[in-house]
Amino acid sequence: MLEQLVTNISNFLWSTPMIIFCVVVGLYFTVRTNFLQIRHVKEMVNLLFKGKSSDEGVSSFQALSLALSGRIGVGNISGTATAIAFGGPGAVFWMWVIAFVGAASAFVESTLAQIYKEKNNGEYRGGPAYYIEKGLGWKWYAVLFSIATLIAMAILMPGVQSNSIAVSIDNAFHIDTTITGLVLVIILALIIFGGIKRIVNVAQFVVPFMALAYILVALYVIVINFSDIPAVFSLIFTSALGADSLFGGIIGSAIAWGVKRGLYASEAGQGTGAHPAAAAEVSHPAKQGLVQAFSIYLDVFLVCTATAFMILFSGAYNTIDESTGEYLVQNITGVEEGPGYTQAAVDSVFPGFGSGFVAIALFFFAFTTIMAYYYIAETNLAYLIKGRFSKIASNVLKIVLLGATFYGAVKEATLAWTLGDIGLGVMVWLNLIAILLLSKPAFIALKDYDLQKKQGLDPTFNSTKLGIKNADFWANGYEIDENKQDEQIS
């Protein structure tokens, strides 16, 4: 009965209105920013490695790494596989669509996070709760978002990551999920009790290395199946548009699963990426907005697509018609929907290697995601609780998140995913409404950034001159000193 209730809540949150709303908001931002995700690609790449960290904030690259820690997780491996299992190959196309329009949403929310950030106990803090209160003046809504995010990040979503780690390690190495859960909790505790700097330092080394290794394996799978490239792309597009005779009947599922898993993987519009974006030391909010927009491309167009191609090129997948429960395609047997598809795909090319490699990749991807969840949860806790009780609350938060991580590792996968979908769904609804109502300052910041670039300047931001209220951090402009060492354009 409890599981049915949870499923009903998830289905309500992820009903057709949610899908339409996500796409429409992303398209609106795309048009209002004059297709920034196309015209500013070169600038996005240039900004990745510009700027340095300070005592108060982290560098753009470190903020990107922390954001990618949250974005690159089980959604890229398990989520992509699940989308193909229930939406068919066409779901991949809709993941691409939501990533493209979602990049504009990511820009808006991350730019807003920078505009309305503040310094708290010597560190930059910001995110949806901060820009909702300061930009919209809705304290109650900001508190509601913070509470929802705390529940999602600390209780509902860590289990999705730890469950996929435990299942994949059990598949590959036959290690009991209880043991994996305990090891996860111990390692995670050592890191999160070390604070944000330790989390960032781990993320900036682990995430790029593991993502590169994963993509290289995917490229090898594609190369040895080079002749199948036209057929695979044709299958994706025809399935997505209902033109394929086999998958045409589940076009609705293709769209729904593609959007849902695309959002889960990219986190565009969810508000999570806005938290590390606010921590970056930059001279203009649009800089970090552009960097975070590019992180959507890295996440979906590289890592998620790598997973999808490995599965589709190898044929290591099944697709189920949810309305009837019957298989439309059954290429493999005895493999549960999720990371098992990716493991079978790599095993088809590297016999005996695939399961272990994917399990290790999933461990690093999902583990760093849980780290990012903690940082996001802590940021919202800092918003809600200030003063002498903040330290106690922070320690309680750590214990709760560690408990949720262990619980997810030993629970059944379907329940873990459904709980995660609920947490994500609530955050997406709350945040998308907020950034839609509050998008004007982000558009002003982008226009100001573009104008300064045309003048040959390294853009700096002054909220007072631009008429943006309550952006106190930028009220007197950006001052470069020994702690703010953004590299200047020579």
Task: Report on this structure.
The strands form two sheets. The protein has a two-stranded antiparallel sheet with strand order 1-2. A two-stranded antiparallel sheet has the order 3-4. The radius of gyration is 22 Å and the shape is globular. 56% of the residues are buried. With 490 residues, the protein is mainly α. Helix 6 runs antiparallel to helix 14. Helix content is 71%, strand content 3%. Mean pLDDT is 86; it is low at 481-490. The protein has 21 helices and four strands.
Write a brief structural summary.
Helices cover 71% and strands 3% of the residues. It has helices at 2-13, 16-32, 36-39, 41-48, 60-71, 74-87, 90-115, 128-136, 139-156, 158-173, 177-192, 196-224, 229-240, 251-266, 274-278, 285-314, 339-349, 354-384, 390-410, 413-437, 440-454, and strands at 118-120, 123-125, 318-321, 326-330.
Q: Which structural class fits the helix and strand makeup? A: mainly alpha
Helix content: over 70%
Specify the number of helices: 21
Largest sheet: 2 strands, antiparallel
Shape: globular
Total beta-strand segments: 4
- Give the topology string: H per helix, E per strand: HHHHHHHEEHHHHHHHHHEEHHHHH
Terminal CA distance reads: 65 Å
The Rg value, from CA coordinates, equals 22 Å
Low-pLDDT residue intervals, each spanning 5 or more residues: 481-490
Main sheet strand line-up: 1-2
Strand content: under 5%
Mean pLDDT: 86
Pfam family, one: Na_Ala_symp
Transmembrane segments: 12-31, 93-116, 137-160, 172-193, 205-226, 232-257, 296-317, 357-377, 389-410, 422-446
Family: Belongs to the alanine or glycine:cation symporter (AGCS) (TC 2.A.25) family.
Organism: Metabacillus rhizolycopersici
